[in-house]
Amino acid sequence: MAAQALADSGRRVELLVVEAGEPSKSIDVAAALWEKLAEQQADRRSVVVAVGGGVVGDLAGFVAATYNRGLRFVQVPTTLLAQVDSSVGGKVGINLPQGKNLVGAFWQPAAVLIDTATLTTLPDRPYRAGLAEVVKYGVILDAEFFAYLEQHTEALLARDHDVLRHIVARSCRLKADVVQQDERELTGLRAVLNYGHTFCHAFETLTGYEQLLHGEAVAIGMHCAACLAARLNRIPQSLVDRQRSLLRQLKLPIQTPNVDRQQVLEAMRRDKKTVDGRLRFVLPSKLGHVELVDGVQPDDVLAALDEAALSAD
Ligand SMILES: NC(=O)c1ccc[n+]([C@@H]2O[C@H](COP(=O)([O-])OP(=O)(O)OC[C@H]3O[C@@H](n4cnc5c(N)ncnc54)[C@H](O)[C@@H]3O)[C@@H](O)[C@H]2O)c1
Ligand SMILES: [Zn+2]
Predict the structure, then answer these.
(1) Least confident among 3-12, 88-97, 241-250
(2) How far apart are CA 36 and CA 29, in angstroms?
(3) CATH of domain 124-311
(4) Cα of 298 to ligand 2 centre, how many Å?
(5) Which H or E element spans position 204?
(6) What pTM was computed for the model?
(7) Ligand 1 pocket by C-beta < 6 Å: which residues?
(8) What is 28-41 written as a DSSP string?
(9) Whose CA is closest to atom 44 on ligand 1?
(10) Tell me, which fold does domain 2-119 have in CATH?
(11) Average pLDDT score over residue span 33-59
């Protein structure tokens, strides 16, 4: 449909389709796309339009960043996760057998075009998983937005048109503001977007990326991170409860997966964002504000995991 609309406007359009799913973010698929661009004699005037979820955005963006030393590209995200997160910020890339997103670039899209109507066909589970990142923006940057989400849980689950417009637009604005201040993740400011993600990545690694959708692991990770912040006396228990209640109302999981706690620590130490094995977390200090906390003690992380598990039921 998007290709047809572009063709109707008089442009030459070539449609390149990839298989759905994370395995398409590979060297082989990227190479096949480079070759197709070459066959079609793509040049500096060509524009790559990525229509799809985060997989298509990351892959097509990476191909655009690398082909002919860079083609312009436009993101047209069609999943909630892609609309509120992956299409904004310019991170593009593919996976290696050794790890996710190991090869990539910072390559900003010329535009991000979002039509929330595309979300009508998205199944419930990935839709709700996308909401986890939306809750994240409220916790880390915008207490008022968090309260808005609390007041609109029914409408959010029903995918109300106006509510969707608001949350997608607000999420993009909040992420873009952060990225603008630290585009290449040099000052640490962009790290605030990783709230809940240190726990999340450990759970994803230990459960093999199949049991949990990313957004689900983010929800659990945020619950763990809030428990850790409360344990370190950075926030009152009431904030842990408030976040838990919102996540639950949005039908997101908060119970930690059945994995060994010591292995969670090990996975965190191996995380590519960990420096010198020191445990670093993005933790809230109040609703709408987070700080990067370095050198957290392993015992506190273990205790937070226990508390998160106990308070999740
Ligand atoms: N670049 C970034 O900053 C960034 C940030 C977060 C995540 N990501 C990446 O995003 C990827 C995950 O993205 P995702 O969650 O969108 O998954 P996805 O792209 O795999 O899409 C999920 C599924 O939904 C289908 N789909 C897409 N749009 C649909 C629609 N409108 N209706 C019905 N089905 C639809 C897809 O075909 C796919 O099967 C991961 O590879 C992750 O690494 C990147
Ligand atoms: Zn995420």
Answers:
(1) 3-12
(2) 11
(3) 1.20.1090.10
(4) 23
(5) helix 197-207
(6) 0.96
(7) 20-22, 25, 52-56, 58, 78-79, 81-82, 85-86, 89, 91, 101, 118-119, 121-122, 126
(8) HHHHHHHHHHHHTT
(9) 86
(10) Rossmann fold (3.40.50)
(11) 97
